[in-house]
Write a structure and sequence with these properties.
This protein has one domain. Helix content is 88%, strand content 0%. It has helices at 3-26, 32-52, 54-73. α1 crosses α2 and α2 packs across α3. The longest helix is centred in the N-terminal third of the chain and has 24 residues, at 3-26.
């Protein structure tokens, strides 16, 4: 696995931890494992949300274009 992939996965885990913290802020009574499961549910439902909101798909495409452009500049 490349170092870029390792770094990208580390970023995902960092952001996931922040998302789990956000979920627990919404419902402080959730245990860490429960908030983690809820985060997994939210990720699972993301594709449906994207299909319902074309503007989100466009934002993903724009972000992807920026990432690809940056990769070509490196």
């Amino acid at each position: 696995m490349s170092s870029k992939t390792v770094n990208a996965r580390s970023l995902v885990l960092y952001e996931l931890d922040l998302f789990i913290d956000c979920i627990r802020a919404v419902d402080p009574e959730l245990k860490p494992d429960e908030a983690t499961v809820l985060a997994a549910v939210a990720l699972h439902q993301m594709s449906e949300l994207l299909r319902e909101k074309p503007v989100l798909i466009q934002r993903f495409r724009e972000a992807a274009a920026k990432i690809k452009s940056k990769a070509h500049d490196d």
